[in-house]
Amino acid sequence: MRLASVTVDGTRRAGAVNEAEGMVALLPSAIGTVDDIVRGGPAALDAVRAALADARPVPLREVRLESPLHPFNRDILCTGWNYWDHFEESQGMREGQDPPQRPEHPAFFTKGPGTVIGPADEIASDPELSAKWDYEAEIALVIGRDGRSIPEEKALEHVFGYLVANDVSQRDLQRAHGGQWLKGKSIDGTMPLGPWLTTADEIDDLEGLRVQCEVNGVLLQNASSAQMAFSFAQVIAELSRGMTLRAGDVVLTGTPSGIGSAHEPQIFLKDGDVIVTRVSRLGELRNEVRRARLT
Is pLDDT at 25 greater than 70 in this prediction? Predict the structure, then answer.
């Protein structure tokens, strides 16, 4: 099932997407939001399935797709350096912040929830704030069941579903604040998320997902989830060790090689650029960079 948050006739609704037919079935308001469905567990999904028999289908082109989840439990949870080719392409470019060797454990950081925008929204960009706006195509997962210190072999049981994200980053801010990444990852209105939330039962091959990013029609990132340094299950197990993950938490799982700051010459986003972020079987984001005053 593909669950979307849509605005139709000025009202935000949950819907179930039939991508092949370009339609979305609007769910009754009693079902609640996509967040309610995620936090409601199997019973909430059963209610969705029952409601689909009488749900009104409308063309996707007639609704506005929003970020599937909103608001959030807390900051977006993120994984860094989770494709070795990406880790290695930036060696020597981290301005003294290079680790001495490949990490033995995933690197984690957070992004403020105010970063999140919808799958077709404009990405805010302010050159007065940063001169180095970079793209990062990623697979995101959504926790569907609370858990702490989750064993790796049971980790995927805690995943509700998967979606597409672009962890747009400001490289100069990322380097400027003591080596931690929060500031350079948390600028308002910069992280598209969506286009819908695909439930875990729809994805039977987690190592067969293709992650791509195009800027102005040029393919700059193109990798398989099989290339991840730490699997989805490993990420969940390590992140949850001693720390409770809750239903509705969003976890980004890392970007592959091809980021703008690692190109020669470097490629940074500018006003008017069109970014297409796609993951096979999960959908596509299409966002235009638009200059905005953020300072």
Answer: yes
